[in-house]
Specification:
The complex is a heterodimer of chains A (about 180) and B (about 450). Chain A has a domain at about 65-180: 60s Ribosomal Protein L30, Chain: A. Chain A is built from seven helices and four strands; from the N terminus they run ααααβαβαβαβ. Chain A has helices at about 1-20, 45-50, 50-55, 65-75, 90-105, 120-140, 165-170, and strands at about 75-80, 105-115, 150-155, 175-180. Chain A has a four-stranded mixed beta sheet. By secondary structure, chain B is mainly beta. The chains are: A alpha+beta (about 180), B mainly beta (about 450). Chains A and B meet through helix 6 and strand 3 of A and strand 17 of B.
Chain lengths: ~180, ~450
């Protein structure tokens, strides 16, 4: 029992530290002092040329970093009410995502589908699955290997905007492409 | 006895034909028929149960309160305060002073006694029809352990409710639900279990991973729920007594969710999403054998079996919007049964078999409603910013559901309402709560 408990706490601690490290995906990890293999594979070329100081910026300036992907390319696309059809704006964002994923071929991506709160819980899980899949299919059509793309739906359970009006609902009806290091899969 | 039996058999038909609302038959024997026109709640008196052993006084008082609260809480009964009493019974065996109870218009009188022997608790009660001056049914005695004192009160109230309404009770039952805490965009969720009245709350899981929509097994020993513990939505089976849990083997797919037990508890019906398409499947828990029940490119989810196990009600957007359908339990061509304005979801078959409860979304409002199993006689019982996920009381007369308030500080709270739309109220859960699943009457 004690052994089991200790093990769980350790695993918990590891998971927590992994989550709170800003450079958890490895690319652009400046200090490189950790033993968890930051920079495993992905972005390694950049790491070799980057100075220690540069890495400390968190990687958002590095076009091969997940932070750059999220902030500059755009990690999410939005949908109309009860729809999973991609808008032309969404397709433009996904074109950028596809290009980045083709360039950074060591990364995997999990596409998270979400719904706004104006729907029943289980239907919204299914609707989020549809949205995540729409984004995934589009990325595949642009050349990203399907083996690198997984989907998950959170339904309406993970809103990013908390008001109860159309402006917030619009932000919550989304598919978010979350980059994960291939070495972690 | 004969008239009672006939009334019981007729009750579902009456419920279907008229808007069910509680009615008190005036001038006849003590009786509430839940299915007829609206009238005042039935006044009852419950003098404090007698303590028959030294030290049982507090338990006797507490159990009396549970009985009174259960009955008053239905909205069908009204307790007469003890300050109005003209006399109180000398002992459990004393003859009833009917004139004293008639004088304060008590129509039902409940007397009881409590004895404690070590950890053993004994509760007995008698129910009297004050106006006919006769006992209604025979006195009953329940024996159990001291820690189960609330259940003993619920058992007494269930017997009283049952004798007066002709329906089975629902007070000695439990509810599993999702307990929620934290900010709206970072909410922690864990499974909780409680008595039907919100008492004896306990957690069944920690809040490290997202959980959705727990569902009780038919005999209340296990719970199915959707868990993100593995990183992706999967179906877990939890044993209530040991709190042990395991992921069940489902059809391969990206997501498995929306589980419900078969009527014998030996199989699970649920949804799997693959490639953006969601269909309904069935898996036998013992053999692990799977079968596919729907094959459509649309969303098919929230399956619920009829009490005889022959049919499944579920929701689908194959018509373009979310609607309710019924099909054979083995699959096959479904019949659409919802045709009103708006969208319909989360259908649940009543344990009586006569009605289907659902969530309706129309013109920016959410409603809990009921309809007959062919979709006729739709009635909306509630209306708010967001009501959803109904679950039936074991007697099919009351629903619990989730009501969520709007805005950043809003949150969900389990509520209950009876099938006439009366007696809408929150169930105390000590914080945000959602997705109730009402278990069976305990043995």
């Amino acid at each position: 029992m004690n052994k089991y408990l200790t093990a769980s706490i350790l695993i918990g601690a590891l998971a927590l530290s992994a989550c709170t490290r800003p450079d958890r995906f490895g690319a652009g990890a400046g200090a490189g002092a950790d033993g968890l293999g930051a920079g495993a594979g992905a972005g390694a070329g950049f790491d070799q040329s980057a100075g220690i100081g540069q890495g400390g910026l968190g990687g958002a300036g590095n076009p091969n970093s997940p932070e750059y992907f999220a902030q500059s390319i755009g990690d999410r696309v939005l949908f109309s009410v009860d729809q999973s059809t991609l808008t032309s704006e969404a397709m433009a964002t996904l074109d950028g995502q596809a290009q980045w994923l083709m360039t950074n071929s060591d990364y995997l991506a999990v596409i998270e589908g979400h719904a706004d709160e104006q729907g029943t819980r289980e239907y919204n899980v299914a609707l989020g699955a549809r949205r995540a899949n729409a984004a995934r299919e589009y990325l595949i059509s642009r050349g990203v290997p399907s083996s690198r793309l997984r989907t998950i739906s959170y339904g309406k359970e993970r809103p990013v905007a908390t008001c109860s009006d159309p402006s917030c609902y619009a932000q919550n009806r989304r598919a978010v492409t979350v980059i994960a290091a291939g070495a972690l899969s | 006895m004969l008239t009672r039996t006939i009334a019981l058999l007729l009750a579902p038909l009456v419920a279907a034909a008229a808007l069910p609302a509680p009615a008190l038959a005036q001038g006849g024997p003590l009786r509430i028929t839940i299915s007829e026109g609206v009238i005042e709640p039935l006044p009852f008196a419950v003098p404090g149960f007698q303590a028959e052993t030294a030290g049982a006084e507090q338990l006797a008082a507490d159990i009396t309160r549970v009985v009174a609260q259960d009955l008053s809480g239905t909205g069908l009964f009204r307790e007469i305060p003890s300050s109005s009493f003209i006399s109180t019974p000398g002992s459990f065996a004393s003859p009833v002073a009917y004139p004293d109870w008639r004088a304060i218009n008590a129509q039902a009188l409940i007397t009881g006694a409590v004895a404690v022997n070590g950890d053993q608790l004994t509760v007995k009660f008698r129910l009297y029809d004050v106006f006919t001056g006769a006992e209604l049914g025979e006195g009953l005695q329940f024996a159990g352990t001291r820690g189960g004192w609330r259940r003993m009160g619920h058992k007494v109230a269930d017997a009283v409710y049952s004798r007066i309404t002709g329906e089975s009770g629902y007070f000695d039952s439990r509810v599993v639900f999702v307990s929620e805490s934290g900010a709206k965009d970072n909410r922690a969720r864990r499974l909780g279990i409680m008595d039907y009245d919100g008492e004896n709350r306990q957690f069944l899981t920690d809040s490290n991973s997202l959980v959705l929509a727990p569902r009780f097994s038919p005999n209340g020993d296990r719970v199915l729920y959707t868990s993100y513990e593995s990183g992706f939505p999967r179906i877990n089976l939890l044993d209530v007594a040991s709190v042990g849990r395991r992921q069940i083997s489902t059809v391969e797919g990206e997501m498995a969710f929306s589980p419900r037990f078969s009527k014998d508890g030996g199989a699970v019906i649920y949804s799997v999403s693959t490639g953006g398409n969601t269909d309904i499947y069935r898996t036998d828990l013992n053999s692990g054998a799977h079968s596919r029940l729907t094959s459509a490119p649309s969303i098919e989810t929230s399956p619920s079996l009829s009490p005889d196990g022959s049919r499944i009600v579920f929701e689908s957007d194959r018509s373009g919007t979310q609607q309710i359908y019924v099909m054979s339990a083995s699959g096959g061509e479904p019949q659409r049964i919802s045709f009103g304005e708006g969208r319909y979801g989360s259908p649940v078959w009543s344990p009586r078999g006569d009605l289907i409860a659902f969530t309706k979304q129309n013109a920016g409002r959410f409603h809990i409603g009921v309809m007959r199993t062919d979709g006729s006689e739709e009635r909306l019982l509630t209306s708010s910013f967001l009501d959803e996920s109904p679950t039936w009381a074991p007697n099919g007369r009351v629903l619990m559901f989730t009501r969520e308030t709007q805005g950043a500080s809003g949150g969900p709270q389990v509520h209950s309402v009876d099938i006439s739309g009366r007696n809408l109220k929150p169930v105390p859960t000590g914080g945000f709560s959602s997705d109730p699943s009402w278990g069976p009457l305990q043995q």
